[in-house]
Amino acid sequence: MIYNNYLHFPQINPVIFSIGPINFYWYGLMYALSFFFAIYVGKKKSKKSLGVWKKEEINNLFHMSFWGAIIGGRLGYVLFYNIQLFLNNPFYLFKIWEGGMSFHGGLIGVIVIAFYFSKNSNKSFLKITDLIAPLIPFGLGAGRLGNFINGELWGRVSTSSCFSMLFPKSREIDLILAKNNIQYQILLKNYGVLPRHPSQIYEFFLEGILLFFIMNIIAKKYKKTGITSGTFMIIYGIFRIFSEFFREPDPQLGLFLKTISMGQILSLPMIFFGIFILIYSLNGFFYKNK
């Protein structure tokens, strides 16, 4: 079935406002909101979960976690998704204005920071990650909204869904896809671009809203160290693997074996590590009152 009318991308200006030559972007605002939300909520929760930590230690933990996510996210994108471009031009790593962040890389960055603070404060590593995990979905949801406003990271072509949307920025890749496909050529003639899944919105609801509620329920109900961290890794991994079936793969990588995306490959270890943490947490292996 082919729908005659598709949803049109709302064409939101990615720039909120400008002061002289300086532009302030919605995407940047999403990062800022995520940071301040984590600081505000994290400080409240830390009093219960981390006990005698000093105020400066809490501030340092969240500030360094933020930068760990940013630096790790950029490194992860370059190494996981664009290694060839990096090898050809190492300075590409610093061209952040050209876009490119990886959640999995950002997660590794946060884990490194949590491990550092664990060693230096003699606190349980998993108590720290249990504090951080329920805060992550807010940032994920905000980031996906930023992607949608920018009209980027759209989904795969879909001619049969009532949710299919026309993204103006997809035209370049749509022209390539339509070369040997008559149906796509007709759609391009009628609409200018191919209808696609608004996968950013799917991820916003799954990885943002739904995961946020699940994680905060888990954090309140189960106090044993590691359960929150393990559950986050499992559920996020499952949600990401599912949503990747609707998301257009990165053009420089495509799909491995014509089926699996890089996002799905990187999410599989998360599920396995999450299961490992959960099993040992439930057996009391990681439980320490520090």
UniProtKB/TrEMBL annotation:
Bilayer-spanning residue ranges: 24-41, 61-81, 101-119, 131-149, 201-219, 226-246, 266-287
GO biological process: lipoprotein biosynthetic process
Any one of the GO CC terms: plasma membrane
Keywords: Cell membrane, Lipoprotein, Membrane, Transferase, Transmembrane, Transmembrane helix
Pathway: Protein modification; lipoprotein biosynthesis (diacylglyceryl transfer)
EC number: 2.5.1.145
Top enzyme category: transferase
PROSITE patterns: LGT
InterPro entries noted in UniProt: Lgt
Role played: Catalyzes the transfer of the diacylglyceryl group from phosphatidylglycerol to the sulfhydryl group of the N-terminal cysteine of a prolipoprotein, the first step in the formation of mature lipoproteins.
Protein name from the UniProt record: Phosphatidylglycerol--prolipoprotein diacylglyceryl transferase
Organism, scientific name: Candidatus Tachikawaea gelatinosa
